[in-house]
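Hey L., structure's done. Input below.
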Amino acid sequence: MTKHRPHGQPHSMSYDVSLLTADDVYLFNEGSHGDLQHKLGSHLISSGGVPGTYFAVWAPNAQAVHVKGDFNSWNSHSHALRHRGNSGIWEGFIAGLGKGTLYKYEITSHHNAYRVDKADPMGVFHEVAPKTASIVWDLDYSWGDGAWMSQRARRNRLDAPMSVYEVHLGSWRRVFEEGNRSLSYRELAHDLVDYVRRLGFTHVELLPVMEHPFFGSWGYQVTGYFAPSSRYGTPQDFKYLVDYLHRSGIGVILDWVPSHFPNDMHGLAFFDGSHLYEHADPRQGYHPDWNSCIFNYGRNEVRSFLLSNALYWLEEYHIDGLRVDAVASMLYLDYSRKEGEWIPNQYGGRENLEAISFLRRFNQEIYQRHPDVQTIAEESTAWPMVSRPTYVGGLGFGLKWDMGWMHDTLKYMSHDPIHRQYHHGELTFRMIYAFNENFMLPLSHDEVVHGKHSLLNKMPGDDWQKFANLRLLFGYMFGMPGKKLMFMGGEFGQWEEWRHDGSLQWHLTEYPRHSSIQRWVASLNHAYVSEPALHEVETDGRGFEWIDANDTQASVLSFLRHPRSSTSPSVLVVCNFTPICRSNYSIGVPTGGFWTEILNSDALEHGGSGQGNLGGVEAEETPSHGRPYSLRLVLPPLSVSFFRQDRA
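Output:
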């Protein structure tokens, strides 16, 4: 990596330069600074006409802080930072230091002569793991996504279609001929965009791209919160990926992990010889599920750090939404803990009041600055009003993953069809609470790992039935109200579980059954985007109406989806969860005329047996299901059919 330094100029220290104003220090210590990325960390600037790098790091319990790197042969004593009053911040300017310089902070603590080398918590670029140094870098980039940014509010609204393709960048596609390496950000930009556009997804969601030392953590054990992982390229390369997605009309959501961080020595844990970012008491500061540290949300500076980080990705990288990981673990003090292993709040309860306060502030700040993005909570409990405004007592998220729908639906689909009549409620229960939150329906990465089997292998029956069941699962999801999310590999029926250190089974797409699943997903996405009834009213009960939720014996569900405006047609969805073809099946409908069959998962092009309704059905003036008209339908085996209301 090339270093740009004035030839022959010594790397001298200066303390006359500071990017921190008195207001910055006040807001940081108050917990309300949202722009620390411009103040802390390393910054390429000039002082008195001399180029160099300004450093600033928060380490209030340090006795001394030195910058060491390849520029001073990793000397521990030659470049000391100066303490900035009572702020806890150490800062200094080193002349002649240019882009590409490797560095760390050597921190000597007041406590027990503790000395440690730390990566920069605000570093925007780090060495490729297992190396741990930070890299002086700029973030200059010429964006070309102005058209997307100017109209993304329309693309991210709750009444807009949102079909999300969830991706782990390191394993989506690999180059076997070159040591099984992952694709770079720039390689991914072209391959991923072509694929996502072909299948019709509106957004991609990336498992955490923030720098992480352990590849097997999938990105959820973050040490470099302000840096895209250098495994795939530079910060500018990642910007190119986002830019190219945007220029192709595809939104970008990032997984964001404020719930915990790893205890790697070069990271945030025990940063300055004290428990600075985390709680000291393990009953509050240690996460038993992930052997990691829990942020101290009650510490003002930690709140400023996290708030700034969230806004940084939205502003610096033009990200369109943040999916916040493991929100339930933040909300409950006793999460995954036994009695006696946690400390109640000041009122004796199990709610983490400091985390609740932080999450509300996080959402308020984001929607105030960027009303055209979305925040999405992965929250698995019955905590109320997760996606309701803070001014009515909610947490303020835009959307919430419907984990209950995911677990109930996958459990139901795993039953042999002959037994499904006894488990009908696992499907219908969801509609009791479906509009209590703004939901996203996830078929995520967590459901295809650790012995849970791939989606295709969760399905019962022989191979034909497995594929039919998978098409039925996807069709049912797209018929239900709620935004959609599908993890990579599911869209073509991968047989194996996902492996982070390998590629998806792309060779399977050469076989008709797997490529037909892809065509089915593309057809679903096209209908979802083009039919207002399927996306305009997904968070409101006015957009959904049961026809028959109680045909347990036949294991058939039928319901209507309504658009916002009466000038657009409604869509009827009928699901047959048995391998029996049902002919002459009567469905009550509200109007006469012709009902066009717009989707049929049993069509030959989708890998089915070719049974269906020959393009549509004329309604009969025969009452059924409390409605004045009815349709006599063919329900193919293990299928879902969509019909658009075309008025007479």
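The longest helix spans residues 512-530. The chain has a mean pLDDT of 96.

-- N.
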